[in-house]
Design goal:
By secondary structure, the protein is α/β, with parallel strands linked by helices. It has helices at 20-31, 48-53, 81-86, 106-116, 132-141, 156-169, 224-231, 239-255, 261-277, and strands spanning 7-12, 37-42, 59-64, 78-79, 91-94, 100-103, 125-128, 149-153, 173-177, 189-192, 212-215, 235-238. α7 links the parallel β11 and β12 (235-238).
Length: 278
């Protein structure tokens, strides 16, 4: 990166809860990138075009969270293959020529988080939810799951969208109503992409022989479902694992330097402890 490319930020709405500034700033400190700054900006879909248009040559990249991962697509000059597959961008890179390139680090971040916890292959899996993270999960499962994926979703429209995503991604997908979500626990891997509180009613249904749960919520942590899963002896992968792994990849894309995983995770854990204490 040239000296003028020192600014980055995370955009979304709401954004105050985001741990991305904590993670990226920890990376800059560890890498000795003293001139780099990373902020959080409250930006909704209506305000996104004006925000992006107003960025100058000092910007290296953006991280995007809800509800912007799909809203950004028309504003980009180029989109990576994986982001095209899932129709969602969580990373924008700015070239020296001003070109805007969209990428998605959620997909490889999901795979990396699972592999770090020893989950290399499963013969089937279940997914809760039908949003952008659920679609990224389907894309990640292409390299993890050798058999069918069952998705539990609310409403006919989301069911159709999830089915179409599976078809597009080449994933053998079976759609089931949210009311049957407890049946997901028969699968060796369950990935919950739903907001906090959405799975609390399932706590009493966690089996004594639980497999692997990947819960993408990171605050508050553990979620009631994750706590019950651990108590039953199951393996749990948390939202912070995903957040850190996708951020490690973002740091490398934006700075050209490998993201320091250990330092970024430690910073994220410290921030969550401080929130809990507060």
């Amino acid at each position: 990166m040239t000296d003028q490319h020192h600014r980055a930020a995370v955009l979304g709405s709401p954004i105050a809860h985001s741990l991305s500034p904590v993670l990226h700033r920890a990376a800059y400190r560890a890498l000795g990138l003293d001139g780099w700054t990373y902020e959080a900006h409250e930006v909704d879909e209506a305000g996104l075009p004006a925000f992006v248009a107003g960025l100058d040559g000092s910007w290296a990249g953006l991280s995007l969270t809800m509800p912007l991962k799909r809203a950004i697509l028309p504003l980009l000059d180029e989109v990576s293959a994986v982001a095209t597959d899932v129709e969602a961008v969580n990373t924008v890179l700015f070239g020296t020529d001003g070109r805007r390139t969209g990428d998605n680090t959620d997909v490889p971040g999901l795979v990396a988080a699972l592999r770090e916890r020893g989950v290399e292959k499963v013969d089937s899996a279940a997914v809760f939810g039908a949003g952008a993270t659920a679609t990224s999960t389907l894309a990640a499962l292409r390299s993890v799951c050798t058999g069918p994926v069952r998705a539990y979703v609310r409403g006919a429209l989301r069911a159709q969208e999830m089915f179409e995503a599976g078809e597009r991604l080449g994933v053998e997908i079976q759609i089931r109503p949210w009311e049957d979500a407890r049946k997901a626990f028969d699968y060796p891997l369950v990935v919950s992409t739903t907001p906090k509180g959405a799975t609390d009613h399932l706590v009493g249904d966690v089996p004594g022989s639980a497999g692997v749960l990947f819960d993408v919520v990171y605050d508050p942590w553990p979620t009631p479902l994750a706590a019950a899963w651990s108590a039953a002896g199951g393996k749990v992968v948390g939202g912070l694992d995903l957040l850190v792994h996708q951020a490690v990849l973002q740091v490398e894309l934006m700075t050209g330097r490998p993201g320091p995983l250990a330092e970024m995770r430690a910073a994220g854990e410290a921030a969550l402890r401080a929130r809990s204490a507060g």
